[in-house]
Design brief:
single chain; mainly alpha; 2 domains
Length: 157
């Protein structure tokens, strides 16, 4: 059976259209996956940074003898305890819980608040480093999705 030129052109164009459509679907999926990854990176670690900031502000209130600081600190510490995202963060958060309990019992607010601040800074450091590390991983993933410049011009020109 002999296939005419018109049929060959239709088959060839259909094949190219299918390949281009497939590339679009794969690209869309990859971009969505990368976008979701980035959102998750920022959300979990940003929350820990926010809780830490609020605990530091509450410590300032406690040191100024403002009783609202105790409640604010407790609330943010409880939220932090449910938002453990990094290795080592659980231990540091537990240290803060222990020190905060001791600070409530003992009237050495200044001494205990210094120790608590040091641990809060550790949580901040863990999460900020994680944001940078995970962002680097997301960038690396995005770089592996990029086509070389010449291929990009061939496909999209």
């Amino acid at each position: 059976m002999k296939i005419g030129i018109k049929s060959k052109l239709v088959i060839g164009i259909s094949f190219l259209f299918t390949v281009i459509a497939l590339l679009c679907v794969v690209s869309f999926y990859s971009i969505e996956r990368l976008s979701d990854q980035s959102k998750n990176i920022l959300k979990a670690n940003y929350e820990s940074v926010q809780f830490s900031k609020s605990m530091l502000q509450a410590l300032d209130l406690i040191e100024m003898s403002d009783s609202s600081g105790w409640k604010k600190f407790e609330e943010n510490l409880r939220l932090q305890e449910t938002n453990i995202t990094e290795i080592g963060e659980n231990e540091v958060t537990q240290d803060i819980r222990d020190q905060f309990g001791a600070m409530k019992e003992v009237e050495q607010v200044k001494k205990m608040s210094v120790e608590i601040r040091q641990d809060i800074y550790k949580i901040l450091e863990l999460n900020m480093n994680a944001i940078f590390r995970k962002n680097g991983e997301a960038l690396q993933t995005s770089n592996t999705l990029n086509l070389p410049d010449g291929d990009r011009y061939i496909l999209f020109s």
